[in-house]
Design brief:
Number of helices: 13
Distance between the termini: 51 Å
Strand content: 5-15%
Shape: elongated
Order of helices and strands: HHEEEEEHEHEEEHHHHHHHHH
Largest sheet: 5 strands, mixed
Helix content: 40-55%
Length: 292
């Protein structure tokens, strides 16, 4: 049964199929641009075999006369059976659409991505499939708010792959206010489902201080301050709580005095530095460095 991570990654492509083209372009796979892009049926067959059902199929160009097709497959683990299925997906789709076909494999972990990138030899002479693979190494850390707002799917993948970098989480959360009201909660949920436990806790702490509601298992009851004059203070409090959350998840003891010292800090640059140090610190002393 597909996992929540699998379904969430698949939704990113089904909800905006243009994202499949952007991922192919990131891999320098030649895909036609400036043409309509559609999610089409993922029911493929290569009779007399059984029907084939890849995760998502996207076509580029007119719906009934596409010029390129993309099979998007979410792969969370190595699976010998999938190395048989992927070439069949490509061949069956090629028979249907009679145009170039790209198999794009999305892998949340590096080991699976390396496995998926290995060429697949088939028993059909001359047919070797080399998939386009997006793994953690191909997903950049999105730390700029403008980039996260312009490419929310990529920003969500960045939270999945680089959520231990607080600047990635902060850029994603800050970008939500620039998305349409109906999109912001949706993309928050995507990133929340994909994020690690540490990144989720940081997201929750940051959401306490935002000025508009985003709905998640946590944020449904935490709508932020809602007052412009309290925004700066709220951001500092959210950053301080994020620092403490990282330390807590990493089982680093924090004394009451140190906890109070962190919560009383209002310097956002200092809090940002503490958050970065908290990811690798072995004690609170490492957090404060020369300040202690």
């Amino acid at each position: 049964m597909p996992s929540p991570q699998h379904d969430t990654l698949n939704l990113l492509f089904r909800n905006r199929p243009q994202f499949a083209l952007e991922m192919c372009q990131a891999l320098r796979i030649p895909v036609p641009e400036d043409l309509p892009v559609h999610v089409v049926s993922n029911e493929l067959n290569d009779r007399p075999s059984i029907d084939l059902h890849p995760d998502t199929v996207v076509t580029v160009g007119p719906r009934h006369h596409p010029v390129h097709a993309i099979v998007v497959e979410i792969q969370q683990r190595q699976d010998a059976a999938k190395r048989v299925a992927l070439p069949r997906y490509a061949a069956a789709l090629w028979l249907q659409v009679n145009c170039p076909v790209t198999v794009l494999v999305i892998c949340p972990d590096r080991r699976t991505a390396d496995w998926a990138a290995e060429p697949i030899d088939t028993s059909l002479p001359g047919f070797q499939l080399k998939c386009g693979v997006i793994g953690p190494a191909e997903i950049p850390p999105v730390t700029k708010v403008a980039q996260a707002a312009e490419h929310p799917e990529l920003a969500a993948l960045s939270v999945m792959s680089h959520g231990d970098d607080i600047s990635v989480v902060r850029a994603f959360i800050s970008a939500l206010e620039y998305l349409p009201d109906d999109h912001a909660p949706q993309y928050y949920e995507y990133a929340y489902r994909l994020a690690s436990e540490v990144a989720r806790r940081v997201m929750e702490e940051m959401m306490e201080s935002t000025t508009w509601p985003v709905y998640s298992p946590f944020a449904r009851q935490h709508y932020g301050r809602g007052r412009e004059e309290g925004l700066e203070e709220g951001r500092a409090e959210g950053e301080a709580r994020a620092v403490l959350t990282i330390l807590e998840v990493r089982d680093i003891p924090v004394s009451e005095d140190d906890r109070a010292f962190i919560m009383e800090c209002t310097n956002l640059e200092r809090l940002d530095e503490w958050a970065r140090r908290a990811v690798t610190a072995t004690s609170v002393a490492d957090l404060f460095g020369e300040e202690s």
